[in-house]
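Service request form, structural biology core

Requester: graduate student, group of Dr. S.
Request type: structure prediction, single chain
Budget code: on file
Notes: please return the result as structure tokens.

Sequence provided:
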Amino acid sequence: MAYLGPKGTYAEKAAKALAALEKLDSPQFSPCKGLMSVVDNLANNLCEAAVVPIENSVEGGVTSTLDSLWRHKNLFIHRALVLPIKHSLMSSGSISTISEVLSHPQAIAQCSQWLNDNIPNAVHLPTNSTAEAIRMVQGSSFRAAIGSKDASEALNILAYPINDIEGNCTRFILLSKNNIKEDGNKASMAFSLKSNSPGALLKALNCIANLGLNMSRIESRPSKRELGEYVFFIDLDLNNSNKKDFEKINQELSPLCNQIINFGCYFGSEIE
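Core staff response, request fulfilled:
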């Protein structure tokens, strides 16, 4: 199972929790450098499953994950997990000596107000992961890292928690190339429209509404082909009464869409 490494990231915690929920037998975890690399490893058959963050309650969709899912059209979501995120500021020095703060860009953004209020002159430096940032600041008295206090190793915890929003959480998804799920309380899909014309998106959304399906999330990403052309990602709530309606969604949307990707049905869980 591939995940955003190195060891000690929130992604590793999510991967282990998802493996337990899926009751996988003796899973082997493979840390990767960069979110796109995680998905590419699965798409290229270098692993059997992958865990990636797809949405944060503060910063919204994780664009690298969304773009990778659109690029690799043969991947399916097997389960989602909402993980609470509580960041700490850690260093070998003290808070009065910090001039550089390192972390993953999402983590920095989730703590931007706290950083501005408490160490406004510190430079923010992005890293590939929170765990990488923690490794890079060890032994430095002027550098601090933002990450999980469980991964602090020999560093001092200078402040905890430092999230701007108390209820900060991230939704991770477990990906596979096998579409074996036939049940679940969620479904996800993505589509691109045939025409960029007034009402085109509304017609597609009306198709979904007419099937009695509730959208719990909708997000757009540039198609990267031309300015003004977008790809739309949606999550749907499923129950026993509307699952048969969900099976009709591709047929209903096909006349309006160039491409439709169905990521399948799955269960969503939360951990404290």
